[in-house]
Write a structure and sequence with these properties.
The structure holds two protein chains of two kinds. Chain A is of the alpha/beta class. Chain A contains nine helices and 18 strands. In chain A, α3 crosses α4 and α5 packs parallel to α9. Chain B is built from six helices and 14 strands. Classes of the chains: A alpha/beta, B alpha/beta. β13 of chain A pairs antiparallel with β10 of chain B. The structure holds flavin-adenine dinucleotide and adenosine monophosphate.
Chain lengths: 327, 264
């Protein structure tokens, strides 16, 4: 019978991404609930040494697959290697991050292994030895509680920034295993031609702990400077509504919402955003929501934990000054 | 080029979602159905490629008869023909089953490129496109914002933004692309387009027509099962931050975020 929880680590340029610590921590909790082992599968090149630290976060075993063709991550190469390892190791649960890559790999694995898959989950539990997940549907207007049937493994991806990260315990260590796998060139049908790095050093919205977003109320692209200042002070990043993106004030990668990114920061500050249902779709799982809007009737106030009715061009700079006093 | 676009019909994004009395489904009575917004990008990209290279654009949908409307919209935008997979046995089929049936229908056609949306805005899954590629054993490139087909029409290059960087990927055709916003600006159906669409071929197929066994579809065959649908978690009623001036409001807000919410 299938046994154990496996999580797939995500790394970039020799460092693990935040989502990796989140799913290793969550994987630990699920493995404990089942009384089974947690194996973390790490793919990449020259990553073995770094991999050991995942033991501090709860991995019992770390299976390392090294090959230059696994870096950067492509869906083909990852699916080829992981599906082989899963067929061999027969885990009961396979957990990935709901990142751009994680979601695509999970979908391809689900088809290739003919196993059920739940995308972008915000809660996991074990009931009667089976995985039960909760995931937002209809843009967060409802939540579905799902379980698996006739499915081995049970595949799920976790929404970034939702699962809490375990306090690292340096007295814990994991057994490191060299994965035995075959990767034929014929399995890799997409070739990486170029990797265009974002040199701005901007934190991706899906990973940011604090987001200051601007909408049509910002009036123009240059005015976003006041949001940039507040965001960088908070150690966060700037997002935007679709109206601001479509006006050309911000790049597409900044858009939050149904046709943009889904984010879950600790703090989301919406400035000059009305709170259309398609915008809420992208940020309703944020822990604390602040709205700054001059219209007291704006729907965003119904979702906000703290609302400030006022002109954002007065309130935001004043807030920046107040935050400086605190930090 | 022979291009296929998969079209899902979904509730309009403004729809109020009400959980039905069985606790496992939603009330569909008042829903206005639309083409999944991501699929509009697929139709647009397919039409632009046809304009450049010539060829044919076929749209495929799976679901009840009402899905015909979404397919007609795509025909009105300029697609050439449509296929609707419809069968009572498909009710409650999960995404893997949908992908299997779509892949079977696509196998009967000629294709160089297939477009699907990155995810449906109904169940927000994002499985079907990538799964179709797996079932057809062709490459997929997901969440594409820029696509270039080589002059010899043998390969594609696509830009795929992943957090903090963009990969430029290349694949031989046939390949499957999933779309996202930024790829293009979808056109609207013109009035003459809508008139013409009424006369364009729309073929209906059952599972049996596709050589598929109904036993492998429907609720019984699901690999994920809905235990229940829940309303979104309640958020506690928010506070309007008091203050006479913007400065006072800002000071109070900062204090609340620091002392009460403890997020700064
Ligand atoms: C299929 C579909 C998908 C969509 N996807 C998305 C999506 O992913 N993301 C998204 O955001 N939208 C999306 N939308 C669009 C959405 O419906 C709204 O049109 C959009 O979110 C509005 O953006 P906004 O709030 O910035 O602008 P508006 O609705 O115009 O609101 C501007 C707000 O700024 C306030 N304001 C103006 N000046 C000031 C000032 N000086 N100080 C304080 N407040 C001020 C106003 O009171 C107003 O509330 C989608 C729509 C559709 C149909
Ligand atoms: N029933 C369907 N009929 C046609 N295409 C579909 C169907 N379901 C999903 N798709 C395609 O797959 C994409 C992703 O859908 P999903 O995996 O359901 O989130 C959609 O944008 C469509 O292009």
């Amino acid at each position: 019978m299938s046994q154990g929880v496996w999580t797939i680590a995500e790394q970039r340029d020799g460092a693990f991404r935040k989502i990796t610590y989140e799913i290793v921590s969550e994987g630990r909790r699920l493995a404990d609930a089942l009384g089974q082992e947690l194996t973390v599968v790490v793919l990449g090149s020259n990553i073995k040494e770094k991999a050991a630290e995942l033991g501090h976060y709860g991995a019992d075993k770390i299976m390392v697959a090294e090959d230059p063709r696994l870096d950067p991550c492509t869906t083909d190469a990852y699916t080829a290697v992981i599906s082989g390892l899963v067929k061999e190791g027969d885990p009961s649960i396979l957990l990935l991050g709901a990142s751009v890559d994680g979601k695509d790999i999970a979908a391809r694995l689900s088809a290739c292994l003919d196993a059920g898959m739940a995308q972008d989950c915000t809660e996991f539990s074990i009931e009667d030895g089976k995985l039960v997940v909760i995931r937002p549907i209809y843009a967060g207007k409802a939540y579905a509680k799902l379980t698996f049937a006739n499915s081995s493994p049970q595949i799920a991806t976790a929404r970034p920034n939702v699962m809490s990260i375990n306090e690292p315990d340096t007295s814990r260590s994991a057994e490191i295993i060299d994965a035995s796998f075959t990767l034929d060139d014929s399995m890799i049908k997409t070739k990486v031609v170029e990797v265009i790095k974002d040199e701005s050093g901007k934190i991706d919205l899906t990973e940011a702990d604090k987001i200051v977003s601007g909408g049509r109320g910002m009036k123009g692209p240059d005015e976003f400077g006041i949001l940039e200042e507040l965001a960088s002070l908070l150690g966060g990043t700037v997002g935007a509504s679709r109206a601001a993106v479509d006006a050309g004030w911000r790049p597409q990668t900044d858009q939050v919402g149904q046709t943009g990114k889904v984010v879950s920061p600790t703090l989301y500050i919406a400035c000059g955003i009305s709170g259309a249902i398609q915008h809420l779709a992208g940020m309703s799982t944020s822990k604390v929501i602040v709205a700054i809007n001059k219209d007291p009737e704006a729907p965003i106030f119904q979702k906000a934990d703290y609302g400030v009715v006022g002109d954002l061009f007065d309130v935001v700079p004043a807030l920046t000054e107040e935050v400086k006093k605190i930090l | 080029m022979k291009i296929i676009v998969c079209i899902k019909q979904v509730p309009d994004t403004e729809t109020q979602i009400k959980i039905a009395s069985d606790g496992k489904s939603i009330e569909t009575g008042d829903i206005k159905w639309i083409m999944n917004p991501y699929d509009e990008f697929g139709v647009e990209e397919a039409l632009r490629l046809k304009e450049k290279f010539g060829g044919e654009v076929t749209v495929i949908g799976l679901g009840p008869k009402r899905v015909t409307d979404a397919l007609r919209t795509a025909l009105a935008m300029g697609a050439d023909k449509a296929v609707l997979i419809t069968d009572d046995a498909l009710e409650d089929t999960d995404s893997l089953g949908v992908a299997k049936a779509l892949a079977a229908a696509i196998k009967e056609l000629e294709y160089d490129l297939i477009f699907t949306g990155q995810r449906g805005v109904d169940d927000d899954l994002g499985i079907v496109g990538t799964a179709i590629a797996e079932f057809l054993d062709i490459p997929n490139i997901s969440l594409v914002t820029k696509l270039t087909v080589s002059d010899d029409q043998a390969s594609v290059q696509a830009e795929r933004p992943v957090e903090g960087q963009t990969l430029v990927l290349e694949a031989q055709l046939p390949a499957l692309i999933t779309t996202q916003k930024g790829l293009n600006e979808p056109r609207y159906a013109s009035l003459p387009g809508i008139m013409k669409a009424k006369k364009k071929p729309l073929e209906e197929k059952s599972l049996a027509d596709l050589g598929l066994d109904p036993a492998n579809f429907g609720a019984e065959a699901r690999k994920t099962q809905i235990i229940e649908l829940l309303p979104p978690p309640e958020r506690e009623a928010g506070k309007i931050v008091e203050g006479e001036t913007p400065q006072e409001k800002a000071a109070n807000l900062a204090k609340l975020l620091h002392e009460e919410a403890k997020v700064i």
